[in-house]
Design goal:
Number of strands: 17
Mean pLDDT: 94
Largest sheet: 8 strands, parallel
Structural class: alpha/beta
Strand content: 15-25%
Strand order of the largest sheet: 7-8-9-10-11-12-13-14
Number of domains: 2
CATH class of the largest domain: Alpha Beta
Low-confidence stretches: none
Distance between the termini: 52 Å
Shape: globular
Length: about 425
């Protein structure tokens, strides 16, 4: 009999690990305490889940989402296009959205991600539309919605909130959003008329508040580079805060010498870089119909240098990305096909790498690690990334929080039936 949801677990039975071993996993509270040969551990039946050979992995974490924008595509009906047109479409409709509407979409999206295996989400939330006309009450609308959803989903999904302050957002509006309990300072300085001035402004707010920073950085193929200046400023800041940068598309188009300089600065400051393949592949390159560039950051150079790298899905079904499956295996697959990573590297970026960049405790099938786990009907990491099996079991903080089972029927082929002569090669 399956335990109810959510339910504290004491034992996962019959898990397959990536190295091929079949094991039992004992859990105490939210921590993995023992991994032993299958059939060797016992626990109360009500707190035991038989994985029946499913592949057991560290659960994905989403390091860069926009839950306030998620699932708005059908309502907005934006034209397809690049980053500028997506921003314009969002701004044109943002003023019509209520706290309740934002919360409903954000909640729906977060739960879809949980069902797919993501147990922690860092989401950016807009402070102010690009017009700069909103008052403080309007500026905090998205943050109020996301703070509400974070409270509702506590214990199921860990939500971390970033104040996404456009260059038109006055400091007092950013402060008002942070006063609601938003965790990190964010923005997109590369979009400002004076990128360095906006970068310095946002970092000054973070320093004044004693908060970490997660910026949208250099989200263009040939625009300004702000990532190195960001790294130089925070290099000597306290390391008990998180510093990260999403997109960093411009790194993928820098010549090798300049790229090496920026990567060295990033490594020295221990800034985590977050690649967002699906949205950047969609938004970048519209002006290049021939030899269209990939629009990804310099993944191999960053990894080879030892930079902490994560990957996420970014937007899902909004003006910035009309598609998306709320599934970290989709992100991992794109890292393989477009980013030329191995499947193991790709899955690490959406799980262990994402957790590192987000400052989360280590998780996985290791004694002492947090029991944030996903079990899928796959034989290996390659199989899981390739097929993204829908059959999944999700454990967050040692509790069973989602189960999806797939039943498939396929007509049997007529084995031994004669083949028409004209079809014989």
């Amino acid at each position: 009999m399956r335990p109810s949801l959510p339910n504290a677990l004491a034992l996962l039975r019959g898990a397959t690990l990536p190295d091929g071993r079949t094991v039992d996993v004992r859990i105490d509270g939210e921590t993995v305490v023992e991994v032993a040969a299958a059939g060797s551990l016992t626990a109360d039946a009500a707190a035991t889940f038989d994985l029946q050979g499913r592949l057991l992995l560290t659960a994905p974490a989403e390091p860069h989402a926009h839950l306030d924008k998620a699932l708005s595509f059908d309502r907005i009906q934006p034209p397809l296009g690049d980053l500028g047109s997506a921003i314009e479409a969002w701004v044109d409709h943002a003023d019509d959205m209520t706290v309740a509407d934002i919360a409903d979409r954000a909640r729906t999206q977060a739960l879809a991600m949980l069902a797919a295996g993501t147990t922690s989400i860092r989401t950016h939330v807009d402070v102010l539309s690009a017009r700069g006309t909103a008052d403080a009450q309007a500026a905090t609308r998205g943050a109020r919605a996301l703070v509400q959803v974070r409270r509702e989903l506590a214990g199921l999904v860990d939500l971390e909130l970033v104040a996404l302050a456009g260059h038109h957002a006055p400091d007092e509006h950013v402060e008002a959003v942070l006063d609601l309990g938003v965790d990190l300072v964010g923005g997109a300085p590369h979009l400002a008329d004076d990128p360095e001035a906006d970068l310095v402004r946002l970092l000054a707010i973070a320093e004044r508040r004693g908060l970490g920073v997660d910026l949208h950085a250099d989200e263009s193929l040939d625009g300004p580079v702000t990532l190195d200046r960001y790294a130089q400023i925070v290099r000597d800041w306290p390391r008990d805060r998180q510093y990260s940068a999403g997109h960093c598309v411009r790194l993928g188009t820098l010549e090798p010498g300049r790229l090496a300089e920026v990567v060295a600065d990033v490594l020295a400051a221990d800034i985590g870089v977050i690649s967002l393949p699906i949205t950047n592949l969609y938004l970048q390159g519209w002006q290049h119909p021939v030899s269209t560039p990939r629009g990804l950051t310099a993944l191999r150079a960053l990894l080879d240098a030892g930079v902490r790298v994560a990957a996420g899905a970014d937007n899902v079904r909004d003006p910035f990305n009309p598609v998306g499956r709320s599934d970290a295996f989709e992100t991992a697959s794109l890292l393989v096909s477009a980013g030329h990573l191995t499947p193991d590297e790709a899955y690490a970026l959406v799980s262990d790498g994402a957790r590192s960049v987000m400052g989360l405790p280590v998780a996985g099938v290791v004694p002492g690690a947090r029991a944030d786990l996903i079990a899928v009907d796959a034989t290996s990491v390659v199989d899981a990334v390739a097929n993204a099996p829908a059959d999944r079991v999700v454990i967050a903080h040692g509790r069973l929080v989602a189960v999806t089972e797939v039943h498939r029927s396929v007509a049997a082929p007529a084995l031994g039936a004669p083949v028409a002569p004209e079809l014989v090669p």
